[in-house]
Predict the structure.
Amino acid sequence: MPELPEVETVRRGLQPVMEGARITRVELRRADLRFPFQPDFAARLTGQRIVGLGRRAKFLMADLASGDVLMMHLGMSGSFRIGAVPVGAFHHPRNVERVNDHVVLRLSSGKIITYNDPRRFGFMKIVARSALDDEPLLKGLGPEPLGNAFDAATLAKACAGKTASLKAALLNQHVVAGLGNIYAAETLHRARLSPKRRASTLASHSGAPTDRARQLVAAIRAVLTEAIAVGGATLRNCRHPDGKLGYFQHSFEVYNHEGQPCTTPGCDGVVRRFVQNGRATFWCPKCQK
DNA sequence: ACCTCGACCTGCAAGC
DNA sequence: TGCTTGCAGGTCGAGG
């Protein structure tokens, strides 16, 4: 469940369970996800109290009482589920072991948090909080799109001089953090901007933001806010930690809508799909300019 | 310094 | 039915 709204939904699901709990046991079912686990990974977690669960870009950041931070990334196919130690003969379906359960955290509350990731593009890494500023995975990340630091001037500045397409720029986590393939397409459609347009056209010659930059910022904020409000999108049955589903896939206007009529009021265009930078892009050539 | 592409993995659906 | 192919919400490193 990977883009910002999905990661934020996961964070909100895990937060009440994790915060304040102590990790009593760490099970690694394999030695690596995308990278090998750090040699002291389990030891640094075991016995630690989780004091908070935050998010930066698509990373979940669990603050530990030790001063360490557990960084977690879901990659393309990562998901968490919350289970509980069975009481008596009662077994809950979410407690049943599944294939691709790679990490199991037992908490002092009796809750069990399981990380499942078939493709293993996700990863976990422990970093000292004092070393976060030097963490390569976070270095250079662009602003949070729902934060105060993200505005038309910032976006225009990040895109000034870029020969890459707007779509590529939105996928670039150094420009703005948290968008992925779905929300890049959806926000560009909302802003009526072509994914093929040069990113540099968000800035005037002097570097000041154009109206396009303002439209795009507004679209990004609106789409992400709406998506979070309905629990993100659920594709391929990837669920929330508590087993519930997101609903934003029903609000997609272009993603996976090839051949369907454009939803822009007054537009009679048809949604098209093409491959851009190796990834599917969905858009309406009629109203996105 | 940019930009694009291939590589990393598994699982599922469509097509033959 | 079974095999092959293509495709999937991400990111990094190599090479142009």
User: Anything to note?
Assistant: DSSP finds six helices and ten strands in chain A. The beta strands of chain A are 23-28, 50-56, 59-64, 68-73, 79-84, 101-107, 111-116, 123-128, 272-276, 279-283. The CA atoms of residues 149 and 246 of chain A lie 28 Å apart. Chain A has two domains: 4-134, 152-283.
